[in-house]
Amino acid sequence: MHGITYLIYDSKESWSSISSKARKECANRSEYGHDSGSITKYSHIAKNKEEAIEYLKSKDTGWYDCIACQFYEFPNLSSKVVESLDNKIKELNNKYFELNNTIHYANVKASFVSCPSCNSKINRDFIKWNNCPICRIDMRPKTILDRLTQYKEKIKSLEIEKNNEIKHLQEKNIRKAKVKWLVKIEYHC
Length: 189
Ligand SMILES: [Zn+2]
Hints:
By secondary structure, the protein is α+β, with helices and mostly antiparallel strands. Helices cover 42% and strands 21% of the residues. It contains 4 helices and 6 strands.
């Protein structure tokens, strides 16, 4: 099996020291203690760790490549805009969970509820969840399901907005960032 690990090192450390540490790490994890050989480093500084991983994946030949590039690591950056987006996301998450966890037919007056999909008549006392106990379909009315979908879509779009805002903050605060090495090691295990 191929094992892949991403290691992070401070850029203040010399490359020879980082490289020998990473090779040792690779040998320790490898089934037969194989040394990876030299590690190829790319002179690329990614905007963050996630983008560095994507960059290394684009350089990977898929055959035990041990490769490295650098990335910016930012302290937690926030702004009024980020905070307000965060609050909106939390609020909508709460609304979503509250609605989603409500057993819709728990308090109906009728003693039987019929499943819209398989038409089974279910005794109200046996309704412990929103899914039909026979065919498993979600029995809640479309209006409720639509509202849940709308919450999810809204949360998703606010998260995109928040991530863009954080990216923007990072670009403005590049001086506060530390440059790190991301070393990808791959070994047989
Ligand atoms: Zn059913």
